[in-house]
Amino acid sequence: TGNAVRYSYIPRAWKIGEPLREDYAITAPAGQAGVVRVLAGWTEHRSNAPVAIVDRPGVSVEIAQVKLRAQKVAPAAATNAMLARFDQLADLIEATPSDGAIRLRWRASAQPSRNVTIFVHGVDAGGAIVVQADVGFDYAAVHWDSGEVFEQTIAVPGLAKAAHIRVGVYDSETVVRAAAFTPAGERWQDDMVIVK
What we know:
The protein is mostly beta strands. The protein contains no helices and eleven strands. The protein has strands at 34-41, 60-68, 84-86, 90-97, 101-108, 116-123, 129-136, 149-155, 164-171, 180-181, 193-194. Strands 8-5-4-3-10 form a five-stranded antiparallel sheet, with no helix packed on it. A four-stranded antiparallel sheet has the order 7-6-9-11, with no helix packed on it. Strand 4 and strand 5 (101-108) form a beta hairpin.
């Protein structure tokens, strides 16, 4: 959707190098939900022709990503089945490895304020890492709603040759691992969940 709005601070009054602030209300279509990009662009007042952005292709720039939430409805009965709970983040409810990838299914248990990274280690019988991957969640953690279920497939070439597969999560900025617990509440060693 798009909203055309008029600025309240006329260009003749602008001062070079001085920041400006404009507040706008954007109306989303009824019933729309999910993560959306907010783009800003400018048009010439009289001709309505788009104004090019210096040093960028196109005539608009992404200024934010926001999550639109649909009206709350009574949740369906949820299963409590899980492989592991990552403290203050999400439950790992399914892990399906294949030759060159692993599909992970998650259920958010919180609304994190920062993004996190998933790590997958394929190890040999002695515990040495033979293949690994570290990737951010495709669905950014800052957009999660508690109870929301989502999945991600992570490419890990050569994963089939691993004797065991370990999965964990860490803070993308501090690189501190999230505490991982079994369904019985016991801490996984080194906060790594063994899924194979």
